[in-house]
Amino acid sequence: MNGEKGISPFKAFTISAASQIGTGNIVGVAAAIGAGGPGAVFWMWIIALIGGASSFIENTLGQIFKVQNDDGTYRGGPAYYMSKALGLPKLGMIFSVIIAVVYGFMFNAIQANTIASAFANTFNVKEGTVGIIVAIIAGFIIFGGIRRIADVTSLLVPIMATAYIGLAIFIIITNITLVPSMFKIIFENAFGLRAIGGATLGTAILNGIRRGLFSNEAGMGSVPNASSTADVDHPAEQGLIQALGVYMNTIVVCSATAFIIILGGESIYADPNLQGLAITQNALAVHVGPWAHTFLTICIFMFAFSSVIGNYYYGESNIEHLGLGKTKLKIYRGLVLIMVYLGCVGDFSVVWNTGDIFMGIMAIINLVVLFKLGKISVETYNDYFVQLKAGKTPVFKVSNIKSLKGLENEIECWEK
Q1: Parent domain of 56
Q2: Residue 75, SS3 per DSSP
Q3: Are 112 and 131 a contacting pair, CB within 8 Å?
């Protein structure tokens, strides 16, 4: 790890984690359990286990085919390896447009809407006021460029994750006698052996997969936009870090929310009058009292606001890939901030379903590409561990990877 030219591996990881760890971990998990029952949690875990492999492949490819900016930082992602490795620049441009719109506008509206709703319900602050404040703070950060984004996320992500997981551990310990039955409920519902609140096997699987994908984004082609900024000695290094991030996001953070809800009792997650955030709030209040609403609102702000920043950078990286210039980038930043404000004051419930559709489109395109290019990542993985087992510090050379033969001219940032 060096981080001398670009962003350190840890900071690159926190940018992607900032986007991944958001409302999906609190609101999305609650919605999945409310609609699909506790069994949805099991299918989230399955998606995470599968997603770790696809995450390694896409993030390793992102590192190999990244490019360097004028200020010494790097950028990359699916649009870059689609253009360079597959020789399909038009597909790369289409993917860039999708990410720039979906993450910069749609998903940021969702995150902002959750922040505004939480503050309105807990502190009785008007949504418009919250929208102005969030947009101003976000503007200060995103107009500062990738280095400021990395600095903020590297501070915010560890704090928010530690606080939330710490509370979940406390709740699990204080309810330790109920933990075996909690896992029993999860597995029974996962395979349709027991129906709770009308949940069936199909809804458990569907909601687990949907919310798992929304949370960890593995295989969708979004995370490589952040991880490609890292300055590392070997692409596999960042690929492994990001694969670990999938497990941290879903197995740890999403499970923390799920355990809080299920241990809160069936009367909460099976209540048809409670949805999304209200399920988590009520479950948390059962465990620690009324102050849970304030704590969760603060957590939501940190989770969702960090996602706004991370989502924005995904869009910026792809706007730069489209070659629209600095003026167009500034216009894009302004539009992102407008969407953040509109997300706070508008009803964006329909955006969740629309977001699921676009996630599916992104995943299909990217997974087909990963299937074609996966051998490059696998060979890069083997090269990394051969050097590691030999007692060397792994250093990447293009000539070591046979599957990159003929693509040397498309690789800018690594020793030929």
Answers
A1: 9-410
A2: strand
A3: yes
For the chain, how many structural domains are there in total? 1
Place of tokens 């997981």: 165
Does residue 2 sit within a domain? no
What is the spatial distance between Cα 401 and Cα 384, in angstroms, rounded to a whole number? 11
β-strand 74-75 against 67-68: which pairing, if any?
Answer: antiparallel
Rounded Cα distance, 175 and 100, in Å: 44
DSSP string, 176-239: GGGHHHHHHHHHHHHTTSS-STT--HHHHHHHHHHHHHHHH-TTTT-THHHHTTB--S-HHHHH
Torsion sign over Cα 248, 254, 255, 260: positive
Q: Is residue 4 part of a domain?
A: no
- Crossing angle for the helix pair 127-142 and 325-345, to the nearest 10 degrees: 160
CA distance 95 to 361: 10
Residue 3 lies in a domain: no
Whole-angstrom CA distances from 171 to 119, 264, 285, 303 are 24, 10, 11, 20
Q: What's the sign of the alpha-carbon dihedral 73, 248, 57, 81? A: negative
- Measured distance CA(353)–CA(356) in Å, rounded: 5
Domain at 58, CATH number: 1.10.4160
Taking alpha carbons only, the member of 235, 318, 249 closest to residue 1 is: 235
pTM: 0.81
Single-letter amino acid, residue 189: N
Residues ≥6 apart with Cβ < 8 Å to 162? none
One digit per residue, the tens of pLDDT, for the chain of length 416 reads: 444 556 677 777 776 666 666 667 777 788 778 777 888 888 888 888 888 888 899 999 999 999 988 888 898 999 999 999 999 999 999 999 999 988 889 888 888 888 888 888 888 889 899 999 999 999 999 988 878 888 888 888 788 778 888 888 999 999 999 899 999 888 888 776 544 444 554 555 555 555 555 555 666 788 898 888 888 999 999 999 888 888 887 788 888 889 999 998 888 887 777 777 788 888 888 888 888 788 888 888 888 898 898 889 888 888 888 888 888 899 999 999 999 999 888 775 666 666 667 777 888 888 899 999 999 999 999 999 999 999 999 999 999 999 999 899 899 888 87
Distance separating alpha carbons of residues 282 and 127, to the nearest angstrom: 22
Specify if 415 maps to a domain. Answer: no
CA angle, residues 275, 135, 360, in degrees to nearest 5? 50
Q: What is the CA angle 26-27-29, rounded to 5?
A: 70
